C-alpha cells in the first residue's frame, strides 16, 4: 500500500499485523509494523518499464512437464498476438507450447528444449509461432539457465522476430522443390533440414531432425555422398554430383561452410 507522510509525500509500504484474542475469542489487541519498501517498489517499476520497452518478448519459465511461467513482458504477448489473460490461461491449462508452436516444429522444439534443460545448457531455437488469428511467423528463442528450483531448471528466455529477409528465406526454403540439408561434416549431425528432404527420406514432418546423426535416419542406399566425398568438399564453390536413387535422378550441389 502507499502511505501519506506528514510532508505530503506518498511512499510504498508493507504492513505486517498480528491479532491477539482472549480466551473467549474476542479481539484483545493488535500489534504490527510498517516496512518502507518504496525504493524496492520503484526499482521494480523501472525494471518492468524497461523490459516492456524491449523490441522482443521476455519470459522466465520453469522447465516442468507442465510449463510454469514466473514472468512474461508485454513484448511476449505482442509476438503471440494475444492478451495477458489469454497467455496466462494457456500457461495454467498447460497448453501454451501446443497452442503457439506450429505442429511442424513442435516435436523438434520439444526434443531440443528437453535435451538442453536436462543438461542445463543454453537454448537457441527458431520455430514458427501461431498467433490468435492463426497466422504464422518465425520466432527465435534464446534461453539461458538462471538457477535450479526444486530440482528443475529455470530459464530466462528472449523471443525475437527475425528480420523480414530471414523469415522470407526460411519460408522459401520450406516451400522449395529443392531439398536442403545442413550437417556437421565430422559428426554428420543435422543442423537444418527442410520439408523436401523429409519427403525424400519419407519421414513425418514432426520428426525431430536437428541434432540427430544422418546414419541414424537414412539407410545406406540413401547416402547421397560418401565419406570421402564429404571430406573433399570445397568451401569456396559448390561441387556437383549426380546420383540415381530409387529410380530418381538427382542433381546435387554441395559445399563446406567451414
Describe the overall structure:
The chain is α+β, with helices and mostly antiparallel strands and 258 residues long. The chain has three domains: 40 residues, no CATH class; 113 residues, PAS domain (Beta-Lactamase, 2-Layer Sandwich); 79 residues, Beta-Lactamase, CATH 3.30.450. Helices cover 32% and strands 34% of the residues. The protein is built from nine helices and twelve strands. The strands form four sheets. The protein has a five-stranded antiparallel β-sheet. It has a three-stranded antiparallel β-sheet with strand order 1-2-3. It has a two-stranded antiparallel ribbon with strand order 9-10. About 2% of the residues have low confidence.
List keywords for this structure.
three-stranded antiparallel sheet, 12 strands, Beta-Lactamase, 258 residues, alpha+beta, five-stranded antiparallel sheet, 9 helices, 3 domains
Short description:
The chain is an alpha+beta fold.
Q: Can you count the beta strands?
A: 12
By CATH, the architecture of the largest domain is named 2-Layer Sandwich
CATH class of the largest domain: Alpha Beta
CATH topology name of the largest domain:
Beta-Lactamase
Q: Look at the structure and name the CATH superfamily of the largest domain.
A: PAS domain
Strand order of the largest sheet: 5-4-8-7-6
Q: Supply Rg.
A: 27 Å
Alpha-beta content class: alpha+beta
Low-confidence stretches: 165-169
Q: Could you outline the blueprint of secondary structure elements for this entry?
A:
Blueprint: E1 2-4, E2 10-21, E3 27-36, H1 38-53, E4 57-62, E5 68-72, H2 74-80, H3 84-93, H4 96-100, H5 103-119, E6 123-130, E7 136-149, E8 152-160, H6 164-175, E9 181-183, E10 190-193, H7 195-200, H8 214-217, H9 227-231, E11 239-245, E12 248-254
Antiparallel strand pairs: 1-2, 2-3, 4-5, 4-8, 6-7, 7-8, 9-10, 11-12
